[in-house]
Amino acid sequence: MKTKIMVSVLLLVAMVLSGCSSLPQPKPPGVGNPxxxxxxxxxxxxxxxxxxxxxxxxxxPKGEMDRIAVQxxxxxxxxxxxxxxxxxxxxxxxxxxxxxxxxxxxxxxxxPEWTQISMNITVIDKGGFQSVPVVLPYQFVTGGFSxxxxxxxxxxxxxxxxxxxDIDLINPEAPMGPLD
Length: 180
Known about the structure:
Immunoglobulin-like; 6-stranded mixed beta sheet; 9% helix; disordered N terminus
């Protein structure tokens, strides 16, 4: 019995030392050159129910951009499941546009004043390489807001909608309904 265990251990050590391991190998750093978000912009406050436009510019020299991932973190609630936007093949090398989020939900007719969220946005290529994420803060407040002009490169042309964010926020102060 001890001999079988000893042989198994020696065989495993020999496989690991020779590089023949069944464990998944991480992608080496610097290999694959991930997409790059070159610019981003979104208003930092507005009323609950407003449409938020998140402006993004991204590039991938390989032309393999595949998806935009948006993850929302809400103070008082937590992190929501990721919303995915597929990048159309004609924009796989470079895009400038916006993703749209209609924040109102029938399940959440109101949100507390000063509710804070952050939007974490990443572009992912077909090989699974991710851009450095951008994090954009946002706060739900009532009141008038001036619409400041968009910064470059978003002010230089008509913006195309790249997709929608599919996240329904939850009011952390609302009473919970009956449990099924």
